[in-house]
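ok trying this again, last paste got cut off
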Amino acid sequence: MEIILKQDVKNLGYKDDLIKVKNGYGLNFIIPRGFGILATDQMKKVRLENIKQKAYKEQKIEKSANELCELLKNISVRVMAKAGDQGKIFGSVTTLQLADAIKKLGYEVDRKNITINDEPIKNLGKYTANVRLHKNIAVDVNFEVVEE
């Protein structure tokens, strides 16, 4: 029996995959739980069209991520933090603060996609963070922590 998956299923496949399973497994488990649908000729055509559209959208997203990557390589980000006499920060610099500083420069980056390499940052100085823009595209952004 051929089934088209409607969502990712662990140890079976990913969304829009065409898989072969035994009849009982397909009819009693996959289809009733909404994990997949029966692969008729018409549904196979719909699947191919979905894959084509998904590839086109993915290509546009990847192109914009590459453009943003080139822009982020050349920027200098300054993160403001309250600090004591010897340059020790009250608290630490987080990805949220870094995302806000990048946003002030006009670039939209989700804080969940930022990884600070020298974590936790408790002193003033220059640091590097890795920003993931797409599943295949990441860029290292240099930033400086300065006193308010």
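PB: full thing came through this time. DSSP finds three helices and nine strands in the chain.
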